[in-house]
Amino acid sequence: MKKYQNEEHTDPRPLVHIDGCSCGTCSNAKPTDPRLELMPDHPDITDGGKPDPNLALDYDPLFSSVLGTGVSRRSLLKAAGLAALSSLLPSAPSFAAKAKFDPVVRIGYIPITDAAALLVAHEMGFFKKEGIDSEAPTLIRGWSPLVEAFASHRFNLTHLLIPVPIWMRYNNKFPVKITAWNHTNGSGLIVHKDSGINSPKDFGGKQFAVPYWYSIHNIVSQKIMRAAGITPVIRPQHAKIASNECNFIVLNPPDMPPALMARQIDGYCVAEPFNALGELKANGKMLRFTGDVWKGHPCCVVVMHEEDTMDPERAAWAQGVHNAIVAAQIHLDGNKKAMAQMLSKDGKKYLPFPAEVVERAMLFYSVADYPKAIQHPGWGQSRINFEGWPYPSATKLVVNDLKKTQLSGDMGFLSKLDADFVAKDLVNYTFVKKALAANPKWKDDLSVPQTGDPYNRVEEFVL
C-alpha cells in the first residue's frame, strides 16, 4: 500500500540550509532565496541584503525582563530569514536518520500556551501515572529549530503548527504523524494602537508578521484581509506596497512584541501569550480573536514519528502518552488559573512570562472587554480551549486553504494534495480516540459539538 498519494515513499529529500541553522553543517550552506542572505559584517540588514541605518530597533527595556533577552533589528531579520523558506529541516543525513526506540518521552516546545498540555502532562505526573518516564521539556525559541530537532530525533513528542507536518510529509517525505490536537483557539490579531488599524480594511499599506508561512496564523490572517479587499503580499520590508496590499513577514514569536513596540511592524498574528504580552507591554490592541472567526480551530497539533505510531511493540507506550495528554487537557480546562501560575516564570518557569501575562492569555475573554474582537459570543468559546480530537473536517479545510494562501518557497506539492487523502493518511486517530473514550469530560469543551456525534463536526468559519 502506498503511504503517499501518487508516488512511492522513498528516502526524504535533502534540504538546503541557510545561515543560522543549528545542525552544525551550515558553514557551507547557501541560501535558496537571495532575499534571505544576511551580511554578517553589518548589524542592521534589510530584507534585500543591504545595510540600512534607519532600521535599528529600539525596543522597550521591559522585554529584557519578560523574555530574558534583548532583541536587535539584526536578530529580527535573521529570525525572519531562518523561518521563511528551506530552513525548516536539516540536511539529508540527520533528516533521514532513524533513532533506536527510547520509551522516555522527550518534549521540545515553543514558549506558548499551545504547548500547555504537554508541559502539564510532564509536570503534574500524568506521564508517570501511565508508567512512562519523561525528561524535563526543552524550550526552543523558534519553529525552524524545533522542526529540525524533531526531525533529527532529539525529541519524540512535540507540538507543531498544523500545516507544518503537511509540508514535512508531502513535500519532504518525512514520516511524521499528527496524533492529536494540543488545544483549540488560542491566537489573535494584534495591532499597534497608533497604527490606524481599526478593522481589516485598514491593513492596506501595512507590515504584518506571522510566526511561520505554514501556520494557521498565516491562513486565517490572509482570509480575513482578502475578505476586506486587502491583498496579502510577500516582499522585502523596504519594498513599495500598494494601498490595497499588506506585506507579510515571518518573525519568531518572541520577536513580535518588541517589533510592534518599535513600530517595525504594524501588527501580528500569533499564539498566546504573545498577544497578551503585546497588549500589556507593547501598546497593542486585540483586533480579532482567531477562535471568534473559526470556531474551535486547530493551531498546534501533537506530532510523533511515524514508526512510534505504527510499530505494534510501541502501541502500549503510544497509548499511555495519549492517555496522559488527554488527562492533562481536562485538568487544564478545569484549573486554568492554577496552571497559568504554574507555567509562568513565577511558578515552574516553563514559560518566560510573569503570571499576569499567562493568566490573561488563558482567562481574559469577554464581550465587555472586547466588544469588537469578539463578534460571535454565542459560540461559547474561550481565549484558549483544550481539546484533543483532530477533526478530519478541519484538516481538510487547512489543506484546501493552504492552496489559496500566499506562501514562500516551493508550493508545487500542494496542487497535488487531496484533502480527503491527507485527513486519512497524515493523522493517526487510534490512540487519542481510545484516550478520549476513557475520559468523557472532553465532550464538555465547547469546541466539541454538543449534539450528535462528538467526533464529527461542520467547520464554522465566519468573518
Q: Roughly what is the average pLDDT, rounded to an integer? A: 84
Q: What is the CATH-assigned architecture? A: 3-Layer(aba) Sandwich
Number of strands: 13
Shape: globular
* Separation of the first and last Cα atoms: 41 Å
Number of continuous helical runs: 18
The CATH homologous superfamily is termed Periplasmic binding protein-like II
Question: Which blocks of ≥5 consecutive residues have pLDDT under 50?
Answer: 1-94
Strand order of the largest sheet: 8-9-7-10-6-11
CATH fold label: D-Maltodextrin-Binding Protein, domain 2
- Helix/strand-derived class? alpha/beta
Helix content: 25-40%
Percent strand equals 5-15%
Biggest beta sheet summary: 6 strands, mixed
Number of domains: 1
Radius of gyration: 21 Å
**What is the CATH first-level class name?**
Alpha Beta
What's the helix and strand layout?
Blueprint: H1 62-67, H2 73-84, H3 92-96, E1 107-109, H4 116-123, H5 126-129, E2 138-139, H6 143-151, E3 157-161, H7 163-171, E4 176-181, E5 184-185, E6 187-192, E7 206-210, H8 216-227, E8 231-233, E9 245-250, H9 256-261, E10 267-271, H10 274-281, E11 284-289, E12 300-305, H11 306-310, H12 315-334, H13 336-343, H14 355-363, E13 384-385, H15 392-402, H16 412-415, H17 419-425, H18 430-437
Parallel strand pairs: 1-2, 1-3, 7-9, 7-10, 8-9
Antiparallel strand pairs: 3-12, 4-12, 5-13, 6-10, 6-11
Helix pairs in contact: 4-12, 10-14, 12-18, 13-14, 15-17
Family: Belongs to the CmpA/NrtA family.
Main location: membrane
InterPro entries: NrtA/CpmA_ABC-bd_dom, TAT_signal
